[in-house]
Amino acid sequence: MKKTLLAAALLAGFAGVAQAETSVTLYGIIDTGIGYNKISGADNDALNGSRFGMINGVQNGSRWGLRGSEDLGDGLRAVFQLESGFDSGNGRSAQGGRLFGRQATVGLASDSWGQLDFGRQTNIASKYFGSIDPFGAGFGQANIGASLSAANTNRYDNMVLYQTPSFSGFQFGVGYSFNADDTNTAQTGWRTANNTRAITTGLRYVNGPLNVAFSYDQLNASNNLPTAQTDATPRMYALGASYDFEVVKLALAYARTTDGWFAGQGLQSSAGNIGFSSNVFSDGFKANSYMVGLSAPIGGASNLFGSWQMVDPSDGRLSGLEDTDKTMQIFSLGYTYDLSKRTNLYAYGSYAKNYAFIDDVKSTAVGVGVRHRF
Predict the structure, then answer these.
(1) 95/154 Cα distance (integer angstroms)
(2) In the predicted model, what is the mean pLDDT of residues 269-290?
(3) How far apart are CA 188 and CA 225, in angstroms?
(4) Residue 175: how many CA atoms within 13 Å on its side-chain side?
(5) Hey, which of 91, 142, 216, 328 has its CA 20 to 30 A from 109?
(6) How far is CA 42 from CA 89, 118, 274, in A?
């Protein structure tokens, strides 16, 4: 009897060691609500209109994923992450129907030298500025990516990304994509120069209430594009910071964009799109972007936040798009209420003038919803 108990105890101990060496975690978010959107002021009346109905992925994109690690010894780990986005209103896959469109990476990690990942993943600007944005890189046109387009949750295929550990609050990251979007046949080919390639890098400092980030992103155009576009090399330099005063958190950001625009917030309508939902290459285009944001806790479960964004195109227009030289401004306000650690309610409203730099085009978006994390 004693031997049986001893054997059972040893087996339980070995099982605990195995679990400590290798782990796989299932996680996800479901975000669904009701919203109202209106577009007005477009020259083409077919593009104007409004919609009331179900919305999803507003505060955070709905997703499910697997992340795991294996202890390889001497502080080295093998790591992977597979993340699939979906529309919680109809159950369809997001990100163009990709199985793991949000992220699909495998790599090596160490507490002493950092992490190296291979595969589809977000760029450095999106990783570093999401924590500065009062809207947490969510809530549609309200998020910081509407003005700092390289921080608009840009995902690159075929990317190698390295990030250092945090050294006294400092962290550095750099990545290179051999082909930023495999699904874009106009920018893809078997030759290296036929693919649109991407460079992303940045440095951040996070220490207590202070969060400062700098990023640089660049796209090298595919030779398959028209000559007017291959001459353009879109670049964005961005600097942002937030400071938590406890009663209120202040956020500021500035970016300089040249030769085009990274993924933007294209406005959807029954007659087509207004603006640009993918990369735009335009030689000579320049724009300055600004964001000022505030957030404040209310009691122990609520948070109120808002931001003002402005993009001033200082030179040229985006090629192929008419009247894209007007100053765009976006005013947004949001609220969340925590029902538990994993479930919260949210409400937001956002108004944009001269949206996508088009004269007198206005976009209004309001919504309420519920987000659950597991």
Answers:
(1) 11
(2) 74
(3) 10
(4) 35
(5) 216
(6) 29, 42, 9
